[in-house]
Amino acid sequence: MAEIHAARRVRAQQALAGGGADAALITAPANVRYLTGLVSSNAAVLLPADGPGVLATDSRYAEAAARDCPDIELVTQRQVDEALAALAVGRGWPRLAFEAQDLTVERYTALADAQTYDDGAPPELVPLGHLVEELRMIKDETEIELLARACAITSSAFEGLLGAIRPGQTEREYAVLLERAMVDLGAEAVAFNTIVASGPNGAIPHNEPSNRRFERGDLITVDCGARYQGYHADMTRTVALGEPAGWQREIYDLVAEAQLAGVAAAVPGADIGDVDATARDIIEAAGYGAHFQHGLGHGVGLEVHEAPIMGYGRTGRLADRVPLTVEPGVYLPGQGGVRIEDTLVVRAAPAQLLTTTTRELLVL
Hints:
It is built from 10 helices and 20 strands. By secondary structure, the protein is α+β, with helices and mostly antiparallel strands. It folds into 2 domains: 2-135, Creatine Amidinohydrolase, Chain A, domain 1 (3-Layer(aba) Sandwich); 138-363, Creatine Amidinohydrolase (Alpha-Beta Complex), CATH 3.90.230.10.
């Protein structure tokens, strides 16, 4: 893996070159992991426009860094941002790009403070933008294999617990069972807190599982995912507990149609806004546009929500090997809702579906 991380740093340096910065300070944990392989709550990378990079972390992670990142210079300091900024100044890299989306005002102020530096000369700080996140969008085949494993665990856990969806079971009890099953099947953790929304709670897209008990006649939406070696799965299915009413089947079939259209539209070169519109227009044409207000989907990888984001006003085009979700929904206040979501990889048509649980309406 060291060779993979070294190659990623080279690509980042190539993207950095010509941008006017002498070096970049990478502080977002997912970006540090992507470039070095280190999993740490306190680490940063100094990446010059040309030459080898430097990894900083504190003593809690020093042994792990030496083991997992043998090909990069290591600095062991508690204040990783300041240590690397001072190193940049000392090595003649005074124009330092930083990740504004990650650095807090307090941390930025420390970097800009002359008292942080022995000679009293702070670097010139300039925003880096989302350089590393943009590199992360297109996954290599090793990353896709890890995502596929996370998705397989997710699908297996959900399918294995369909029998637990029964009258009297609470949303919270079912969420705990599902999360335990994912870990038992090999997940290192869950990708995010499981969403379980039953009956009228189904109108809340991110309902926090409650003590509401499942009842016959409910639509039940379950949004879940496993994390495997750092990579996140994301899948949503809506099931019916008992024979669905006409309105329930109507909105389910509508969301299923929109989701299928969105998946089919997610091909290399497709405009992100057009993919969103392909699914959204179907829901709007059926008169439910006001009940689908969130974006159509998002990228997945080392974070469960990462670039690209498909939604209002989003721009850009999809590329081959970009994993993302397609998750339209319809939410009717006081009644319930439906969401269907798959994780897929953009390929030359058709897309590679990683979540494999049936999208047919399951009547339990």
